[in-house]
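Can anyone check this?
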Amino acid sequence: MSTQQAVAVMEPGADFLIDEETVLNLDDHPMTQLLEEFDDSYVNQPQTGDIRHGVVVDKRAGELLIDIGYKSEGIVAGREVDRLEDEFKEMTIGDEVPVYVMREDREGNLLLSISRARAESDWKHAEELLESQDIFTGAVSGFNRGGVIVKIGQVRGFVPASQLSSESQAMQLTEGEPDNRWMKLMDTELRMKVIDLDRRRNRLILSERVAIREWRREQKEKLLESLEENTVCEGVVSSLADFGAFVNLGGADGLIHLSELSWGRISHPSEVVSIGEKIKVMVLNVDQERKRIGLSLRRLLPEPWETVPDRYEVGQVVRGIVTKLVHFGAFARLHEDTIEGLIHISELTERRINHPSEVVAEKQELELRIIRIDTEKRRMGLSLKQVAPEEESVEFDWEPVPLEENKANGAEGGAAAAEAGVEAAQAHVETEAEAEDAQGQDPEDPEYVEAVI
């Protein structure tokens, strides 16, 4: 600075003017650079608990030197290296790693921890999951008698037995040591939600049950929007009830009503499907308001009556099992088939009886002869009395007799025979008509039940 400029600055009222050359000289002043370095050092000075991103600058036996942008490198050594295990061997100079600032030792070395940095990051992630209530997946890494352990990074989360889903609870071992009851869940991937967290107590509680419930709700919403009636999809039988079978279609369950499981009459879904079985089903209806899906299994199977003419004929002897007794006869299901036929009470035996139970019983297997097939009305007439004993050789002509020939034979038989047979014939016609009506009805229909009673 010149003498004139110095005097001008010192004189009262003088204009304080600094030319461009003077400014440049001040920027290059050594004191200015020292002040800048001091400020940077102060601002960047690491504090205990800080998490920094550093770079490995040296690797020694049981020790890492990490540059975190401070005046000296930090050290990862001792137990911190032991916690890294095999990862320490794979680390090379230049690798970027997160570190946790612990403290300075007596020699002024800055001690760092890689495992603590990762744990802090994992705790932060767990806190975000608790706040957002997002669902995440994790593998079971340990267990005890009270539940299982699932890690979020390096943080151990505990899933109490009461917070496991019904599927997971079904896998517990009922025999052996109680501590090993959850052994079968080891390494299993589970859907989880964070339901409780306390950093000070190192407490992290997870729930699979809550996560599964919410996940299924979301999946059901998506499924209800995508499903269309009369489409075919694949699922797994998840549970059975007296009224039908539930099928998991991928997070949402649909119901196959008992009447839609089989073309034949069944008393329980277990006669057709079993839990865990993979099946294809047809979507019958989708109720968006009630969140229900109606399914059918039988509609993907051939309708049995369509193939009856190819498999059965009048006069054929078949094996059947009695399924139901009514006052006018017995219903029997053909062997290895869903087709049911009626054995009219007049076709059970040659002698006169008051009820079919005098001759046959439910679940009894019989040799029967087919005496009538009506595919349009889906009716089949069976006979027990017309099955000839094996030692006899009897041939039957099952062709219908013309009406004119019936009249001629009746005339030749004489008035006495006709008069004697009128009452029996009328009774037979009435019971045949009654049987035909009943065979075409649903036994569960109230009118049918009333008629039977």
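Reply from J.R.: I decoded it. Residues 1-11, 13-17, 390-397, 399-453 have pLDDT under 50 and may be disordered.
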